[in-house]
Write a structure and sequence with these properties.
seven-stranded mixed β-sheet, about 40% helix, alpha/beta, Rossmann fold, elongated
Length: about 280
């Protein structure tokens, strides 16, 4: 196999000795990729040594990815992404709740759901109910004042779009935000929850099918079927437990700044670098 090691700013350069030591231990050839990434090729390594390497890299704030075969951009036709805390830096529902003075209560439920401790449909229903009576203009305020793309998102999207890959944003969040992301980023497909609004106020309900883990998986399967491709030709990115089912059917699953339960099950864990770190694996 080979190992790709990545780090932000000077993390890679400042850990040259560590990387050289890993290469010596694993009898690997060092192949520089760019200022933030290096590949160790033809690694000789058992599971125990790999764990030691991962822990050393984690301490040095380096992301390490083990791959048994080299992948290229042409192996994939679709990139499917979660939105909140993956494509963007915030959890939209937490920021909407902040307009009601209820961010701590809602954020606590959000965090439990993302860790997999709370069933997603129940958690969403409980959180949205707390928003009842809020002026719908709060959604635009969140979009204008708080929503930011995650590190490396713009570069990642432009690169994969230039290579001809399609994009899907599938979110347990809300259409108010995914619709705007679709236009802003020229995305091909989006699917998320619809907040019910009556007389300019949130009713505390969502309408239609709730986009939970099962619905996310079905959406990836549906889009792949429409494109005439296998789900193994999809890269799927997420951070929470509700992303695991769609990640498991993909050809490459990427955990971005993710909860431990997600990091442990993903093919790739990007804890320190941006979303564009996936490009160094292709």
């Amino acid at each position: 196999m080979h190992l790709t090691i990545q780090g932000l700013n000077r993390s890679l350069a400042d850990n040259h000795a560590l990387i050289a030591s890993i290469a010596e231990q694993t009898k690997a050839l060092i192949a520089p990729i760019n200022d933030q990434a290096v590949r160790l090729e033809n690694v000789t390594c058992n599971a125990d040594l790999l764990t030691v390497i991962r822990n050393k890299c984690l301490t040095a704030q380096l992301d390490v990815t083990a791959q048994h075969q080299k992948l290229s951009m042409s192996d994939f036709k679709l990139v499917a992404m979660d939105m909140d805390s993956t494509l963007i830096t915030i959890e939209c529902i937490d920021e909407i709740a902040d307009m009601q003075g209820l961010k701590p209560q809602v954020a606590e439920i959000t965090e439990a759901a993302m860790r997999g401790e709370l069933e997603f449909q129940e958690s969403l229903t409980r959180r949205v109910a707390l928003l009842k009576g809020l002026d719908a203009s709060a959604l635009q305020r969140v979009y204008d004042e708080r929503l930011q793309l995650s590190l490396g998102a713009d570069k990642m999207l432009k690169t994969i779009q230039a290579a001809g890959l399609k994009t899907l944003l599938v979110s347990g969040g809300f259409t108010f935000f995914t619709d705007r992301m679709k236009t802003r980023l020229n995305l091909d497909y989006t699917h998320s929850n619809v907040l019910e609004i009556d007389n300019g106020k949130l009713t505390g309900k969502v309408t239609g099918t709730i986009v939970d883990a099962d619905e996310k998986q079905r959406t990836v399967e549906r889009v792949c079927a429409e494109m005439g491709i296998s789900t193994k030709q999809a890269i799927v990115m997420g951070d929470g437990a509700n992303d695991l089912k769609m990640m498991k059917i993909s050809g490459l699953s990427v955990a971005f700044r993710a909860k431990p339960v997600v990091r442990e099950q993903a093919d790739v864990a990007l804890n320190f670098v941006g979303l564009d770190g996936v490009l160094n694996l292709l």
